[in-house]
Amino acid sequence: ATTLGASAAERGRYFGTAVAANKLSDSTYVGILNREFDMVTAENEMKIDALEPQQNQFNYANADRIVNHARNQGKKVRGHTLAWHSQQPGWMQNMSGSALRSAMLNHVTKVATYYRGKIHSWDVVNEAFADGSSGGRRDSNLQRTGNDWIEAAFRAARAADPGAKLCYNDYNTDNWSHAKTQGVYRMVQDFKTRGVPIDCVGFQAHFNSGNPVPSNYHTTLQNFANLGVDVQITELDIEGSGSTQAQQYQGVVQACLAVSRCNGVTVWGIRDSDSWRASGTPLLFDGSGNKKAAYNSVLSALNNG
Ligand code: G3I
């Protein structure tokens, strides 16, 4: 096929992008979005600070602009994210203990209930593991409510929307030999053993020279899939340009295609100028919306490789 979404669909997968609500009035942006992608993640609009700016007062306006646009165009939606140490509203940042635990679970329940039936996969918990060599949890106000906060969030999400796939999502978990990857792996293994409702693991896949695409990427994805969960590449971007960048993108897509439980790939923005990175050219379209070499290599991998 001739677009990312249609080509991925022929392989039984989706191809998505992060979308910002304030760009839905940009016709170049929307043209590429509508043509190329069949899955959408809100880049910021479904985070805790956006949806619950005051405690128990929810504002779904910007999130709904994205969800409605996607659904009207026949695209699926990935929910990002129900519980996270970052982008918490001020009232939540100042909470702790059982009050914070209750507020977090209330947020999970209310938001997952509001969107019940409309979300393909939820990032239930985002970035809960520490960087570095410990392989343990990241310290945060949520972690200090008790080590079981993650499974509590997953149980609340399952009760609120039994039809959505429930994912754990993190970055720097791509290299199988990294302690963080191993820590997440052990948590998922433990959840599956004890029947905690988890369906998928998201690999953010923000790559650059300090964090290159690992040669063992396929191994990482396959090992997680072997635990009995789906795997998804959720926030892909790769610093660089030209044929080097194109080859790296192709390698990531091929790694997903090689794992039957890898459901799809989402890139973290459309044009280079839409990227969260302050500088650089990490995406598939240039600032004018032209297809880059990386686009062509991804399309070719989806169709041939
Ligand atoms: O909307 C305000 C604007 O009104 C204000 O003038 C401006 C001044 O700084 O800030 C704007 O908000 C910014 C927002 O992006 C929208 O552009 C925030 O400051 C900025 O912090 C926020 O950054 C987002 C970042 O998450 C925050 O953690 C990025 O857009 C978003 O791409 C990024 O996404 C994360 C994923 O959620 C999780 N994984 C890593 C990924 C990349 O960091």
Q: How many separate helices?
A: 11
**Shape category:** globular
Total count of strands: 9
Spatial extent as radius of gyration: 18 Å
Low-confidence stretches: none
Task: Going across the biggest sheet, name each strand in turn.
Answer: 1-2-3-4-5-6-8-9
Ions, cofactors and other bound molecules: ligand G3I
Query: Which whole number gives the mean pLDDT?
Result: 98
Helix content: 25-40%
Q: Into which percentage range does the β-strand content fall?
A: 15-25%
One letter per element, helices H and strands E, the order comes to: HEHEHHEHHEHEHEEHEHEH
What structural category characterises the helix and strand content? Answer: alpha/beta
Keywords: Carbohydrate metabolism, Glycosidase, Hydrolase, Polysaccharide degradation, Signal, Xylan degradation
Active site: 235 (nucleophile)
Domain GH10: 1-301
Catalytic activity: Endohydrolysis of (1->4)-beta-D-xylosidic linkages in xylans
